[in-house]
Specification:
Layout (H helix, E strand, L loop, with lengths): L1 H30 L6 H4 L1 H17 L7 H20 L4 H14 L1 H19 L2 H10 L7 H16 L2 H18 L4 H18 L4 H9 L4 H29 L9 H10 L8 H11 L4 H19 L1 H8 L5 H10 L9 H7 L8 H19 L2 H9 L6 H19 L2 H19 L3 H11 L11 H10 L3 H4 L4 H16 L14
């Protein structure tokens, strides 16, 4: 018995020794990962900028469908090679960091897929067409710019896409504005301001989800906190658009009956359909978890699709096919409904879950680059350059805004800029004791809304082409987009709703 006890003690000591040796070896390996100089740390970023430049030049707006993802993977490869050779970072650490990064956004990827279904069901059930139908009838020459901004904001909030809003209702509003005698830059500025307001705060927006997920902030918590800067920026913008409308001697009102008739000819327009967005809003206010809220909203829209739009459902299902097939097609696949109006056809076309796969692909590739740069301590090296400015809230927010603008200018893509900005400052905010929601808000204030103001950015290039208005023509009148990063710094300087947390507190 005593021998057995000695054996057990020896085995315990042996296990302890092996574990200690393993830990010691891990610490030795970690100590070999040197902090690179800023010049070394910027090599993957510079490589990404160069590759992105050529992909944008070759593919244009279609770069996001695959070329940008390849650019991210090539930059990740360069980062790994530089990290393993110059920083002596073991491959296992890089691989673990990449896996951890992807794990952090796994919930957001599921949300993206549900959002694909939600956008489709809201459109096919007549919810979004009803909002458009009532919205366009609010247009009056004396309040045209304000109405244009509000209509685009509402539609963008409901669809979660500034691109879709601008490419559909935006084109119609540009035509109406020109007929009323408004300067095309004014109209484009109102459209873009409204569309990016919705893109920024909508729980359906890919950029909103991306900013919250990369910064590890709950989605609706991120949206509520953004309203502290987004709300004032929008109110000031509406006041400025009202002033422009007031000083402009507009002509007679435009006939929008063709637009509304095209909608009413294919969809049953009913105020009852507005109950779905109202109930969804109530769930958001009640802080129901994102996945549950979006899924329930999708189910409600599906019920409305069966009750209000049976003809649309039959068309989606295919001739002679059961209704169930139409519902499944609406949730996962691309659909198109013909109305006789090209603008409306483009608006009501849906992509379902499959339409989100490109974004999921982009996020996965971006997480690879972010994880590799984190493991090689390159992000740490870059952020240390800005550390002397991050002792106070206004300094850290200003640094975040400046970095976001810089990446928007250099990478020419808002998705990449959001991911790199949030990843670069995440540890800094945590170290200084600031809430993650401050990082997510500052990132969106700096990146999401300013991407459209840069001519060579994928957003700026796309919207200028769609609206047929040069970027520098509409830039001075995109009041919301210009005010958002400024407002973010002002609120940080004032210190409203910004506080440092004790490590034991956690986030409230």
């Amino acid at each position: 018995m005593r021998f057995e006890n000695k054996q057990e003690v020896w085995e315990d000591e042996r296990i302890y020794f092996l574990e200690f040796r393993k830990y010691l070896l891990e610490q030795i390996m970690k100590s070999k990962s040197q902090l690179p100089s800023p010049i070394i740390a910027f090599i993957p970023i510079i490589a990404l900028m160069i590759i992105i430049y050529f992909t944008i030049h070759m593919y244009g707006p279609d770069a996001l469908t695959g070329a940008s993802q390849v650019a991210l993977l090539f930059s990740t490869t360069i980062c790994c090679l530089v990290g393993m050779t110059c920083c002596r970072t073991p491959w296992q650490e890089i691989e673990d960091a990449i896996i951890q990064n992807i794990s952090n956004v796994s919930t957001s990827l599921v949300i993206l897929l549900i959002i694909g279904s939600l956008s489709a069901t809201w459109m096919l059930s007549g919810i979004v067409p009803t909002l458009i139908y009532y919205g366009v009838q609010l247009i009056h020459p004396g309040f045209f710019l304000v109405c244009a901004c509000i209509i685009c904001a509402v539609i963008s909030v409901m669809t979660g896409s500034s691109w879709t809003t601008i490419a559909t209702i935006g084109i119609a509003l540009i035509g109406i504005g020109k007929a009323l005698g408004f300067h095309e830059g004014w109209v484009a500025g109102a459209i873009i301001s409204g569309a990016y307001f919705g893109d920024k705060i909508s729980p359906l927006s890919e950029t909103t989800i991306m900013a919250s997920s990369v910064s590890e902030t709950p989605l609706f918590k991120h949206i509520r906190y953004m309203m502290l800067t987004t709300g004032p920026s929008m109110l000031i913008s509406l006041f400025l658009f009202s002033a422009l409308s007031f000083v402009h001697a507009s002509g007679e009102g435009s006939d929008v009956s063709a637009f509304t008739q095209a909608l009413s000819s294919r969809f049953v327009i009913s105020p009852w359909l507005l109950l779905v967005p109202v109930l969804t809003t109530v769930m958001i206010i009640k802080k129901v978890p994102s996945l549950i809220t979006l899924f329930i909203s999708c189910l409600m829209a599906t019920v409305c699709l069966c009750i209000f739009q049976p003809e649309v459902l039959r068309e989606v299902a295919g001739e002679g096919q059961p209704m169930l097939k139409g519902i499944i097609n609406a949730w996962y696949g691309a659909t198109s409904i013909t109305t006789g109006n090209a603008e409306i056809d483009s608006l009501i076309a849906t992509r379902g879950m499959s339409g989100m796969l490109v974004t999921v692909w982009l996020i996965l590739c971006a997480m690879c680059l972010g994880g590799a740069m984190h493991a090689c301590r390159m992000l740490e090296s870059i952020t240390r350059l800005l550390h002397r400015f991050t002792q106070r809230a206004v300094g850290i927010v200003s640094s975040t805004v400046g970095t976001g603008l810089f990446l928007n200018l250099t990478t020419a893509d808002q998705y990449i800029s959001i991911i790199l900005t949030a990843s670069s400052f995440k540890d800094t905010y945590r170290r200084e004791g600031y809430e993650s929601r401050l990082l997510s808000r500052s990132t969106e204030d700096a990146v999401t809304v300013t991407s459209v103001l840069i001519p060579w950015n994928s957003c700026g290039m796309t919207q200028a082409t769609i609206l047929n208005v040069a970027t520098f023509t509409y830039l001075p009148f995109c009041f919301f987009n210009l005010l958002s990063p400024i407002m973010s710094i002002i609120v940080a300087a004032v210190g409203y709703k910004i506080k440092k947390l004790n490590p034991a507190e956690g986030e409230l």
